[in-house]
Amino acid sequence: MRADIMEKIVSLSDGEHIPELQQYLSSLTDDQLTTVVTNSALKGKDIGAMVKSIFKGSPPSAPEGASRRLLLYQHCIPLCESGDLQTEVASDIIGLLMLETHNLPGPSLAQLASLFVDAIKLGKMGSGKSLELFPTVLTALAATEALSYGKGELSGEEYKKQLINSLCSSRWDPQCVIHLTTMFRDVPLAPEELQFLVEKVLRMFLKLDLQEIPPLVYQLLLLAAKGCKKQVLEGIISYFKEQDLRQKEEQKDGESMEVEVQSIPQDQLRHVEGTAILHIVFAVRLDQELGREFLKSVKGSQGELCPFSIALLLSVARIQRYEEQLFDFLKGAITKGFKDEHLQQGSKFLQDLLPQRCSLAQMILDTVKNSVFGWDHVTQGLVQLGFILMDAFGPKAGPFGKTATEGVNATAKTPTQQACRLGGHILLEGFKVRDCFWMLSDFSLSSSSSDLLSDIVVSAPMILLESSSKVTETFDHLSYLPLATVQGLLKAVQPLLKVSMSMKDALILVLRKAMFSSQLDGRKSAVTGFLLLLKNFRVLGSMASSQCSPALSFMYSSHYEGISIGPFICDVSCAQVQVDVHSRYNSAANEAFCLEILSSLRRCLGQQADVRLMLYEGFHDVLRRNSQLASSIMQTLLSQVRRYYEPEQDLLPPVKLELCIGAQGDQVFLQEPLAHLLSCTVHCLLWYQGMRRSARPNAGGSDDDDDEEEGGFQDELQSILESITRRMIKCELEDFELDKSAEFSLSSVGVKNSIYAVLVMGVYEVLIEYNFTKANYSKSLFEELLELFSRYNKLSEILKEKSGKGKSSKSPRSLLSMGFVSTLLTALFRDSAQSREEALLVLRSSGDFLRYAVSVALQKITQLEETGHTDGPDGQNTDKTFHHLCDITSVLMWRYTNIPCAVEDAGKKEKRCSVSLLCLEGLLRIFSTGQQRYPARVAQLLSAIGSDHEPGNASVTEKTAFYIRQFQRALFTQLNGGEEDFNSKEAQLLVNILSVLSRQLEPSSQQFVQMITWTVKIFKVKSFSKGLLSLLFSLHVLYKSPVSLLWELCQDIHSQLGDIDQDLEVEKQSHFAIVNMKTASPTTVIALVCLSVRPHPVCTHTHAPSLSFIFMCVFPGDATQAAGQQDPVEKALTLQLGTLLTALNELVQTALPSGVCTNTLLGELSRTYTILTTLVKYPQVCVCPLKSLIPLYFQVKLSGSHLTPQCYSFITYVQSGELAGGGADDKKKKKKEGEATATASAKLLRETKAIPNLIYSIEQYEKYLITLSKKSKVNLMQYMKLSTSRDFRINAATLEAALQEHDNSQQTIASQEPEQSQEPKKKRKKQ
């Protein structure tokens, strides 16, 4: 029956019997019709023809036809959503319905739209297939002229808006969110409707499963083509940021949290994030407007970055048109983050003012860790970012390709160093998690890249071995690289050479070629590489862990420069590595390999002095790490010493100095560093003898036999050194052609004499160290040692006198080793053994020798502070160097505290620096070195001092405070003594030591408060100013804001120097005794310099852009404060800036002397107005309520009515040359100094740019103030006085005074006597 109905309807339609068709359809009931449609749709047969026939027999103009059409729509829509139909059938039905939608009357469209809305609200749109029809319905509905709505009528467009509002305000089934978003892409939407819809979809993110997020993101991005691009992007980023935070919190509390509370797995979240990033990047590629909105959004929300947004940035950066902009933004954001963090850590005011922000560097590293979950599109951007940071902020090449070395123990302190270190961390972590060995091709060979490569070798050696060709390619460039870079590169790859035969062979081939390079640096690089190989390819018997099996020995005992290399064997190629170690890297092969290298190095002994010097400096380390090469090395040194040794015992001098120099034309140069040769020989001999003595109990009687087998080099070297010592004592300066009449100019003769003098002094130092070590505290041998020193000292004095000639000559670097200096100082000052007292008394009786010993120690400590290492044996060994530093610290501290400078200098009229003063200077350098090079071991350094009253198991702060009190007592004693006993240099050193030690105090500790209290007390009662003011500012900024201190200082300075208006008398004030007529000017400079470098929000003018975060706190987006309440941040910043303006107002009225004072103040005023301009510009950029302008009123009033007029007066004062104090100097002095002052003032005005910069800053401030006044409708210019043209000025007061003076001069002759009896003109008091 139903089939007959369907066939009849179709046949009537095909036969074009429209009236019969209409009549037949009218005869069918609604149930019959819907049943026929359902059966036809389920069978999937002729459903299209059936629907077309019904439409053909239901004219929309007739009420019955319109009703039948509506019935068909109402039945087919749920039918398609039921899921019972085939996909093709449902698509055909929806397509036919869409074609006829525009023929429906308005009421039918309204009913149909309501049907869709109700179905969506009830969650009946599961498949979403019928939703394809909804946009067509809404479009047709919008075209309707009028529709009944309630008791009235609405236009079709308004009715559509009501439907959309109702739909977006209702609850959506999570299953239909994606379908609805897809559907709305085809619906014409007004901007406000689109915004409402986007907000609704973004809110639904939290209700969806993770798997549904990527398709929804895709559809939302397509929807963003209509608008709201920024809102869509920010919503997606905000969602993933929230998910990341939830996941982190759950990960932290994972151990104590129940499984049910756990939300989403980490790997699943990361994969979803990666897919979402791909969708966004694809959309940005196709839509440039979306890319521009993304850039604006990111740049406008620097503080809102998160790992997801950073990953998105790096992915978008792969698009060429955005690459430069995004990487520049990331680079700037990273440096700004480090700068802000640096400022906040250095200022207590900022710490209290601003909340702790999430570190951008940590978020980037989190992005690196997240990239392990298949984020290949992010990895390339991360690698590029890492190299950009290292290239932009790494050590810059200096003259001749040299780079500044920070030392192995230097920590990243400045924002630039931290940014470079972050770049290295990004690449290292990226290599660990992604095995990015392809990035080796991007290595720019620099010192920072070498450090990175070293870390990669330690963490993932086997991965590098798989791409060893990339490493060996870099070897070809060794001859052309700076020496420091070559050293870093070879140190980095050294562990790989033990397990890669091909890599080692490639390196040796390159080094052999470099040995004959025409470039000096190439030959030095070859020596560096060969020495490194000798140190690390040990011969059997040289290892400390020789009992280990050969296969495991390189795993546990391979160390370089104190850094453990770690195990190299992994599961992937364990067997292969073990086979290589057993078969190729055995002891015999290593011995032959090392002897072959030594034969190559012997050729260096005929090259330039720099190459030989590197060889001599490296032999001791080779001998210490590869003791079985002792015989070959010692024989090499012996043969080299013989070339310059005079065997005839009666001839003086015992060395052939003429062979140590070379000449080429008029140029004389050093050919053989003889002193370094002897130093290397002595240290190697002493180490070898010590090793033999330690091994003698186990060696039995074979020692003599071994000496005979080794050629007896010990005896020969000892006899040579003893002969040189004996004859050097007998030598006079004339024997070296060096006497008081010798020339030390820049001529060839003078250069030759200078080289001779340095060589002879070095030989004497080497002999002093050797003979002290061999003397065994013999009195006679110590007397000979003192003779050696007297010869050295005499030559040193002549060299200083001749080479000085009014210039500060730098003494040559001492050849004494750090270990010997430590031993010598301990023996001279702390050794109290009775058996040694008589011998040591010989050395202690010589004041010059004591000064020399401490001076050398000071030189070594300075070198350690600057470079991180010292010359001589074990100078590169961090642990041993620190041990020696601790010993020296203990000795110097004991010497200074037990024999103060006042006691030592009593009765002496020498101008030389006392031993105690040298000890104090050494302590200053040691404490500074400890903080810079050994920040984690400062407590150990302080404990090494070993004071009797030092607290035991105390913190670093307590130990530091203990020694601070000792130096405070010493300084207080100095300041309380008379002028004759006062030693300004000692007091200055004590202040500097206190400044260095105070950095170790915890700002929140009681000891820090005591330090500030003591400093303020000294500051108020004593007039010594050197360093104390800087110390006080550095302490105050860590404890509280220093602007109140600055204000009081400025008042005292104004009181002492007087006013720029000489007719005004300034009220006398004295807050600090340190400010007087002599110290007022330098105090001004120091105070302004401290103000400009301290990390304080109102004085960090170099970081004015960083104030935007502070201003965000001052000008919140919404005025949530209750009436009458002031925001704490706003109040604090207003108070600080107001106090600063008041302090500067005092200074600009002060009669400062010309030069540095006025120039510094002008620069400080410019920076202050720059901050005021930033403060005024910020409310214009960010939409702020009128209430947010309240903090500006006080600043504008203060700057406009007080500071700006005084600034112009001060500029006039500086330019007019009235630079004398407020009436304190007499006229005669002014006339004498007038010409010199005018000349200096004219030169200053020609050279300085401070005045134009200040005027420009003031005018910029006024410009933005006028703009803000117009925008806010608030007259902020009522306190500002507009500046006049400065091209032509007539100062009325000055003109009147000049005319008055002219009239008085006309009457001088007639009324001279009465005029002399007149009282002086009274000054007006400064209010």
From TrEMBL:
Q: Name one Pfam family in it.
A: FANCI_S1
Q: What GO biological process terms does the UniProt entry carry, in alphabetical order?
A: DNA repair
Q: So which residues are the signal peptide here?
A: none
Query: Where is each FANCI helical domain found?
Result: 289-370, 572-800
InterPro entries in the record? FANCI (IPR026171), FANCI_HD1 (IPR029310), FANCI_HD2 (IPR029312), FANCI_S1 (IPR029308), FANCI_S1-cap (IPR029305), FANCI_S2 (IPR029315), FANCI_S3 (IPR029313), FANCI_S4 (IPR029314)
The domain of life for this entry's organism is: Eukaryota
Molecular function (Gene Ontology), one example: DNA polymerase binding
Q: Where is the composition biased (Polar residues)?
A: 1305-1317
Protein name per Swiss-Prot or TrEMBL: FA complementation group I
